[in-house]
Automatic annotation (TrEMBL):
This is LALA0S05e03334g1_1. Signal peptide: none annotated. Keywords: Membrane, Transmembrane, Transmembrane helix. The keyword Membrane applies. The chain crosses the membrane at residues 82-108, 128-152. InterPro entries: DUF4112 (IPR025187).
Length: 195
């Protein structure tokens, strides 16, 4: 972590407070997995943690899983592709340097990610759609502030937030369809039919 990153992180903390992308700082792109690693020479084992691309939950059908994968890929490029002084930023951070034109391009690219998310089976419910549009509008509005707005926009990461919103929506949607309770016969009805 570079020395220059401390003032930037302090400023972000003052502007946003303790902002989370999801619960417990959930990463929309990667997950940490543990596996057992065995030493070649001694045969001893130890638990090792490794980061890998976040898997698509099994309950989500392939068509929606492909859309979620494409949305994740685009959002990653736009929000997190590069790493400098301990801060991750993407193409939106680079494009945002251009005054006004850059902000309009950022808005257009973010709306492209949103349009891709709309392709899920059955579309997006109004609440989820409004949440995603609010993230984009807030990012655009903050980005219009000269100099500071670009930094705030890089920290806010609207597209990454929208990936989490879409993923949570799909998990809720398909967990309901899979875990439907099996109807059990009512004992009163059985007794009435026997009489």
């Amino acid at each position: 972590m570079g020395i220059a990153s401390y003032p930037l992180k302090y400023l972000a903390k003052k502007v946003f407070g303790e902002v989370e992308l999801g619960s417990a700082f959930e990463d929309p792109f990667f997950e940490e997995v543990e596996f057992e690693k065995r030493s070649f020479w001694s045969g001893s084992t130890k638990i090792v943690k490794k980061r890998r691309d976040k898997s698509i939950p099994e309950s989500i059908p392939d068509t929606d899983g492909k859309i979620l994968r494409r949305v994740r890929k685009r959002a990653y490029r736009l929000d997190m592709k590069f790493h400098l002084f301990g801060i991750r930023f993407g193409w939106l951070g680079v494009i945002g340097i251009l005054p006004v034109v850059g902000d309009l391009m950022i808005l257009w690219l973010s709306l492209q990610v949103y349009q891709e998310a709309l392709k899920v089976t059955g579309g997006l419910p109004p609440g989820v759609s409004a949440q995603m549009i609010t993230n984009i509008a807030l990012d655009f509005g903050l980005g219009l502030i000269p100099i500071v707005g670009d930094f705030v926009s890089v920290c806010y990461k609207a597209n990454s937030r929208n990936v989490l919103v879409l993923e949570k929506h799909l998990k809720r949607k398909y967990s309901r369809t899979i875990t439907r309770p099996v109807a059990t016969p009512n004992p009163r009805n059985r007794l009435a039919s026997e009489i």
